[in-house]
Amino acid sequence: MPLPHLSRNVKSTHRGLQTFFVSDTIREDLLNRTAECYRLPPPETHVPLEVHVYDNLCPLDEPAESHAPNKIFGYPSTCFRATSKKDGQPYMLRRIHDFRLEDEQAMSAVKAWQHITHPNIVSLREAFTTKQFGDNSLVFVYDFHPTAVTLLQKHFVQDHSVLRPESMLWSYIAQIAAALDTIHTNKLAARILEPSKILVTGTNRIRLNGVSILDLMTWTHETDRATHAPGAEPSANAQMIAQLQQEDLLHFGQLIVSLACGSLASLHHMQESLDLMVRQYSPALRHMCMYLLSRPSPTKSMDDVMALIGPRILTEVSELHLANDVMLQNLSAEVENGRLMRLITALGFINERPVLGMDSQWSETGDRYILKLFRDYVFHQCDDQGRPLLNFAHVLTCMNKLDAGIDEKIMLTSRDGQSCLVVAYREIKLCLEAALAELTSRIPN
Ligand SMILES: Nc1ncnc2c1ncn2[C@@H]1O[C@H](COP(=O)(O)OP(=O)(O)OP(=O)(O)O)[C@@H](O)[C@H]1O
Asked: Coiled-coil intervals in this record (predicted)?
């Protein structure tokens, strides 16, 4: 019988430990993510103890001397990781400083975004106003993606242009297009497609960050008031959305050009940048950018963009399936380990238990004696010279066989070497179940 997650052609003693566990890269990534969720703020950081239903605030931005207005929002903005007191989960709080929301009705602008769940959009949870920062602040709450960096941090911090692999660009394009398609279908516009407002996690997974902020902020400004006001012409709002969607397509094109040329300055000399793209990339990529950068028109839409991406979406889908297979493989190894952990715990409950009821010999007698010898057989093996053998593969193989309760027999020897027992894993499994049942029956109600 093939044992779970053990290769059939390799001797158990020759298999590396990594066969039995989640891969080092994935483990390290997950550990870093967990650490990031619990990272403490640097000493002397002044943050409120709690804001609305969130506490444990930890700043995510670099410490700044002063809070200059953010270029995108027009107001200073700072980001925090914080823990929700409602569900204990970490969230990302974006505070817009010193922003007075004139009309609570403006909050309706975030409602439409709260319903959007998309793998390439950072989900918006809620927005609220607060005085807990000592001013009138507006706060947007998003999902927290530990260890995320922005596209700006990942691709534009160096002071020289670096060309990007085309496959990576198409992957970004497919993901951004998927996000925009959902946004536009929901009669909304992203409005912000800036490298500093796109998050990257893992290898190349990206998410649009900061959705809804401009919708809410401009709602309170005179420009939007008329279109959102009760009784306003519905077509006025639809027109405005259509215009903002066209701007999304332009910004999308600019983003690709700057990524392809490896510099934000490339947008200041567009013709030169497009010429560079002709030399370095496929005609399809340039064609895509030309379409996105073309003059807005009622017929220009995400549908056409999707058609232009065409077969490259299949590459993206295949890559995702492959990544999913790897994850599933890693997950199954960990599920096996969880199962074995339960068996080892059961042995721990029984072995060396000093007393059960009035019986001080319980763990040394009957079925339990076999379990004690089995424990020695699994964990306390020595070589000919009596030196300890720490063979993980042996432990896992034994525990897998015990779990399966197979008929294979093994020889168990007492510590003094005076007695030997030949028992099948099936019998050891029965002993374990019986001893555990006896322990369970003693648990007070
Ligand atoms: N939802 C999130 N989950 C995890 N980290 C986030 C999230 N949103 C932002 N961050 C991190 O917080 C930091 C600040 O984000 P922000 O959007 O302010 O970027 P920025 O580069 O400081 O841009 P700006 O100059 O516009 O303030 C970034 O390092 C970013 O990676």
From this structure: 311-349
ipTM above 0.90, yes or no: yes
CA–CA distances in Å: residue 281 to residues 20, 276, 304: 42, 8, 21
Q: Beta-carbon neighbour count of residue 55 at 10 Å?
A: 14
Q: Do domains 4-18+328-441 and 38-309 have the same CATH topology?
A: no
For residue 356, which of 269, 240, 436, 238 has the smallest C-alpha distance? Answer: 436
Query: What is the H or E stretch that residue 407 is in?
Result: none
* 170-174, 177-181, 359-363: least confident range: 359-363
Domains of the chain, by residue range, sit at: 4-18+328-441, 38-309
Residues with CB under 6 A from ligand 1: 60-61, 70, 72, 77, 79, 92, 122, 142-145, 148-150, 152, 196-197, 199, 209
What atom of ligand 1 comes closest to residue 143's alpha carbon? 1
144 is in an annotated binding site: yes
Q: Give the model confidence (pLDDT) of 67-119 as tens digits.
A: 788 889 999 999 999 999 999 999 999 999 999 888 888 898 899 999 999 99
Kindly report the CATH number that applies to the domain delimited by 4-18+328-441: 1.10.287.3700
Residue 120 CA, ligand 1 centroid: distance in Å: 16
pLDDT at 230 over 90: no
94 is in an annotated binding site: yes
What is the CATH T-level fold of the domain 38-309, as seen in this structure?
Transferase(Phosphotransferase); domain 1 (1.10.510)
Q: Report yes or no: 124 and 114 within 8 Å, Cβ to Cβ.
A: yes
User: Sign of the CA dihedral 105, 106, 107, 110?
Assistant: positive
The pLDDT tens digits of the residues spanning 41-54 come to 998 889 999 999 99
